[in-house]
Amino acid sequence: KAGVTQTPRYLIKTRGQQVTLSCSPISGHRSVSWYQQTPGQGLQFLFEYFSETQRNKGNFPGRFSGRQFSNSRSEMNVSTLELGDSALYLCASTREGAGDNEQFFGPGTRLTVL
Amino acid sequence: AQSVTQLGSHVSVSEGALVLLRCNYSSSVPPYLFWYVQYPNQGLQLLLKYTSAATLVKGINGFEAEFKKSETSFHLTKPSAHMSDAAEYFCAVTESANTGFQKLVFGTGTRLLVSP
């Protein structure tokens, strides 16, 4: 069974640009979550999507947004990039109905903002 | 809100020595607890999870963790370190949302260094 895949693996952007990251969950998983990992703030929850709807959102500005498609694939978008947005963005998928909501993580997208 | 404390940002051991990584959580209700490992330039890999079935949880690669409610702890151990264990380890606790989703709240991580 294929794991969670994320594309691209690496991105370099400049301040003010916008970026879109993609995540394909494990087959059959309908919940997709996004996390940001930085040396200063650690791992922080961005948002979660289920059945094409954002169900939960972390404490991030509106520049961070996402969406989910009918095949459960998800994208996240960051507009007006700032230097502080440089981070590893991790996507995780969950099999709805699993009592422990175990989340399976992808390899991440490393975003560098210059 | 849930929180997780990992004592020690870096832990150094010799190959063959005991590994002990500490994790304390804040919760009045026993949560679900996880240990993840992250190798350089990779995502998070689940080592083990506590879901109230048993207090001593065995995971992959010889790791295990014991849930102690009285101490609100979930420390990770391995009897004998291997060079390949060098990585960053994250303890995480679930935090329920009213939608039924349980997001993960992570500790700050502990980097394990293994010397020959």
How large, in whole angstroms, is the Cα Rg of chain B? 14 Å
Number of helices of chain B: 0
Calculate Rg of chain A over CA atoms.
Answer: 13 Å
User: How many E-type strands of chain A?
Assistant: 11
Form type of chain A: globular
Overview of the structural elements:
The complex is a heterodimer of chains A (114) and B (116). In chain A, strand 5 and strand 6 form a beta hairpin. Chain A has strands at residues 5-7, 10-13, 19-24, 31-38, 42-50, 53-57, 64-68, 74-78, 87-94, 103-105, 109-113. In chain A, strands 2, 4, 5, 6, 9, 10 and 11 form a seven-stranded mixed sheet that branches. Chain A has a four-stranded antiparallel sheet with strand order 1-3-8-7, with no helix packed on it. Chain A has 114 residues and is mostly beta strands. Chain A is globular. Chain A is built from no helices and eleven strands. Chain B has 116 residues and is mainly β. Chain B has strands at 3-5, 10-14, 19-21, 24-26, 33-38, 44-50, 56-58, 64-68, 73-78, 87-96, 102-106, 110-115. In chain B, a hairpin with a 5-residue loop joins strand 7 and strand 8. The mean pLDDT of chain B is 90. Chain B starts with a strand and ends with a strand. At the A-B interface, strand 4, strand 5, strand 9 and strand 10 of A face strand 6, strand 10 and strand 11 of B.
SSE topology sketch:
The complex is a heterodimer of chains A (114) and B (116).
Chain A: E1 5-7, E2 10-13, E3 19-24, E4 31-38, E5 42-50, E6 53-57, E7 64-68, E8 74-78, E9 87-94, E10 103-105, E11 109-113
Parallel strand pairs in A: 2-11
Antiparallel strand pairs in A: 1-3, 3-8, 4-5, 4-9, 5-6, 7-8, 9-10, 9-11
Chain B: E1 3-5, E2 10-14, E3 19-21, E4 24-26, E5 33-38, E6 44-50, E7 56-58, E8 64-68, E9 73-78, E10 87-96, E11 102-106, E12 110-115
Parallel strand pairs in B: 2-12
Antiparallel strand pairs in B: 1-4, 3-9, 5-6, 5-10, 7-8, 8-9, 10-11, 10-12
